[in-house]
Amino acid sequence: MALAFAPAAASGLRLAPSSLPLPHPLRTSPSSGLLRAATSASPRSRRCGCGAVVRCAKRTGKRRYPSEKKRLDRRHKDLLRQAAPEEGSAERESGYWRLFKLAVPARDDPGKDFTGISLPLLQSIAKAIKFPVASMLPDEAFTVVRKSFDARKILKEPQFTYTVDVDVKKLLDMEPRAWDFIARLEPKLGVVEYMPKKKLASDLISMLNVSNKGYNNEQGIKDTHNGSIYPQDKKPRVAVIGSGPSGLFASLVLGELGAEVTLLERGQPVEQRGRDIGALAVRRILQSESNFCFGEGGAGTWSDGKLVTRIGRNADGVQAVLKTFVHFGAPWNILVDGKPHLGTDKLVPLLRNIRNHLRESGVTIRFNARVDDLIVEDGQVKGIVVSDSELQSGSGSQKLTFDAVVLAVGHSARDTYNMLQQHDVNMSPKSFAVGLRIEHPQELINSIQYSELAAEVQKGRGRIPVADYKIVKSVGERDSEDELEIAEQSRSCYSFCMCPGGQVVLTSTDPSELCINGMSFSRRASKWANSALVVTVSDHDFKPFESHGPLAGVEFQREFERRAAIMGGGNFVVPAQRVTDFIRNRLSVTTLPSSSYRLGVRPSKLHELFPPYITEALQQSIIMIDREMPGFISNEALLHGVETRTSSPLQISRHGETYESTSLRGLYPVGEGAGYAGGILSAAVDGMYCGFALAKQLSLFHGDVESFLGKAQKQIGFVKY
């Protein structure tokens, strides 16, 4: 039955009237589910012989047709059998077997920080290979590849889930009686898989073989990939704009391969940036170029430091980035943890180490350097105009010439988008999401997710990880007979940047606008848990701002950031509302629950902030979440406004192979600000691949990057986060 909501009352606040479109009222999708994305596929039409139009939607994942699933299963089984040696053959005496989904009950496991081989894990391994006595298996033959915690309600009890590699030669040398069981082991996709040799993805620095090993960079890089890296007499000059993950990894690659790289960052190094953020939190002083969005490391530095991605955790490129982080000081367990994160306190020294390495390898790093314009001649970038970001734009500017410019700005560099539009660079609006940030007491989320096991969390110091959640709901009009119309009206509402043991922070870059995000330190020891609840929006929703062309999504964001600032009353006070009042469309008149947001909250009518189609989607989703997480709707739950910068509102067109702009030669847009990434890992991977692609064009690299990093994700239009 559809849920009905009273229309939002007219706001008593002086908000600018909105001409935003009002799509059909939203109703709950019967197929919505927790922890599962009910994505709407684009229908395709074909006409049969009788003249009738038949529309069918492409089905993927769990929604595939049974016959298609069977075909895929047969294909996978054939591939696995071909990869593994025949049963009982001598070839099985070497190589590796990867065992997935090895479960150890939480009560028996040593805990989240232990990544060795325990007796309960040996028992799970013995069960997988059908070995009778677990204690006879040698620990040394096994390596933990992945460890994650699973507390889903469908399980009998919470458990740790492992992925383990078995070194066959070592196992048989130490326990010959295991041969009978290895000889009969049957490969099964996602459960038991054979590898002739172990995957050993290297960190980027070791991969390029230039890390303090005595090679002379002036004479060229040592050939480590079959003649793929070549010296060059004259170094090409490359500007990298932005020191976020994509800019840093592009600089690492280009600098190590012999380019003369200048890395320009409009903000401050992490040490000064931390002081500026402290001044914002204590004295309400916003530095427009050094804040939660701008500065060394990008917006992700003062966030949760999540290292999760949807582009493939086991992809060689992703593994290379993770191991590069470890190379520069990140904890080793990020390679094993199922949900790795660093936290701001671990990111700061990591960035300092990367900065020092870049400078030692010859990269020039300029902080406080804002790029105001591009120097363009005959459709090609020839250089940039740089000014001191503490001064007014254009004053004291300097013109610098370069052979190529890597544009690695973040999603808040709105002045850069304006500059690109003036140069007629091909850009297009991109879907993103907007909403509110919800905050609960962390103990409440622990109790909802873990029940009696919640006592084991101990503010991040216990055996059990601090509880989080990941939510995806689909809401939309389902009464139409037109499947095309249904697809257009469906919207996803999902949790974004969930920060267990974290705090709500200000991410505004303009005093007249208000937007927020969440952050956590490595221990996640705060007494609050917060997450954005956001609704997808697309170019259809940006029609009132279509006069801004490709920047329509930017203006859409600004509309609600300005409204939130007015609702909060100014001075960076955030408008807030109890969840119980938000779903009833009423102002919170009693004292609000305590909030982690340090600049203050003000009771407000957040149900009037957005157009009804966004508000109702959020309300319906919250109600659905509470059905599966009883207690989610609570008097202690507080909504904060507004969350708008979930990803870039546009995408800068580029060629898939070269990463060069389709409309301006010599410009290489990468990372989150360009619309090709969403988070630390995917941005770093994008910058790394761009570095190799550009190095190839500059004749610094003549090899095949896919031979050692695998294929890059082809991100055209839709970005996987």
Layout: helices, strands, pairs:
Blueprint: E1 43-47, E2 53-57, H1 66-83, E3 96-105, H2 119-129, E4 142-150, E5 159-167, H3 168-174, H4 179-183, E6 192-195, H5 204-208, E7 237-241, H6 245-256, E8 260-264, H7 270-283, H8 316-327, H9 344-360, E9 364-366, E10 369-377, E11 380-388, E12 398-401, E13 404-407, H10 414-422, E14 427-429, E15 432-441, H11 442-450, E16 472-475, H12 483-489, E17 491-499, E18 502-506, E19 516-520, E20 528-537, H13 552-568, E21 574-578, H14 579-582, E22 601-603, H15 612-628, E23 638-643, E24 650-652, E25 667-669, H16 680-697, H17 706-709
Parallel strand pairs: 7-8, 7-13, 8-9, 13-25, 21-22
Antiparallel strand pairs: 1-2, 3-5, 3-6, 4-5, 10-11, 11-12, 14-24, 15-20, 15-23, 16-17, 17-20, 18-19, 21-23
Helix pairs in contact: 6-16, 8-16
Biased composition (Low complexity): 16-43
Keywords: Flavoprotein, Oxidoreductase
GO molecular function: FAD binding; oxidoreductase activity
